[in-house]
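# step 3/5: fold
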Amino acid sequence: MPDSINQIIHTLKLSSDSLHIVLSQPANSSNITQWLSLAIALLAIIVGPAIQISIAKRQIRATVLSANRQQWLNSLREQVAEYNSVLYKTTLTYSTITEKEKRELHSRAVLLSSKIQMFINPDKPLQKALFDSINNSMELLAEESDGKKLAKSIIEINHAAQKLFRDTWIKVKNQK
């Protein structure tokens, strides 16, 4: 049996012994002390497990939250990397590819940017920075801007993503 259960059983035995002794004696000041000891023991029996349950619930919640954050971080990292890959391919090949290939790259970039934007909360500053850099790159892509501007936007996306990932990783690490 776990130690906490053994402690409860031991306390119950002591409490029942104390109750028997207290009830069999006439009322006096030592009897009051024994009643007080009995009341404290009974309180410990009730409060101890309640505190343990509360601690266990908090630990479970922290573990689940940490796992969810880690999963969110991994998924977002994959989406950002794939989005940057599409942008990079666009900067390298834009002047040499067909209109159909351009539309496919644009379509893929739109899909990935939408996925990324669904992952982030624009009300949080680090997430908003990533959100804004993604939007900026999409505007450059729509304008068919030169490769240098698009390459610069990839760097901005990476910078914003790295700050967000580092901040989130610290939160995950602190909850474990």
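# step 4/5: annotate
The chain has a mean pLDDT of 82.
# step 5/5: archive (pending)
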